[in-house]
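Lecture notes, unit on protein representations.

Consider one protein chain, 204 amino acids long.
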Amino acid sequence: MRNGTMHSDYFEHSQFQVELDDLLEATLSIDTPYPWNIADPEAASYLEKLEQGFSLDNWPEDEVAARSQDFFARLDGIWAQNSLSQRFATWAPQSVLNAIVQQAQKLVASNLSLAEQLVQCVQQSLPNWDADDLQVLARPLAYAMRGVEAETTEVVESTLKAVRPVSWEELSELEQARLSLSIARCALAQLHQTDSAQTDESCE
């Protein structure tokens, strides 16, 4: 069973890496270099040429808006998954990280309380846990998100210190719950950063 899980996690991580590599290759394969300084007068002709070759005039506005939102949501998800993978890959399987990020994307703009969002982010990965019990563990993280950055960092780090730095299978159910909630807290924070210029050091 463990070998099957490891193989599945490896496949998902490899597929994710392939998508990132394809995006990077497509970006670097453009013949004309992108003018990073758009204030440069020479950039105007470059951007004008691009606009002439790509027009949305015949597209309905609602479809453009929907596709744009979907595109940026996917970018946000890739960014969050990549960042969380770098920090938590040695502790949690890629499948757990992906499940948390996908759920966080659905909930980040919801009217649910922060504690409820955290619980729903991890329930798929913690099927043996009751929602009320997860709420108790989520409260410190949820309240910290409303406070100052230093307090948030302290609470997240304190939660992680209660989790041994071993593989997911070796963690107790309580440690898995604490780790999952910490990951969910970081995922939600990073998705919130798309609307804010602030950097949350606790999730770097």
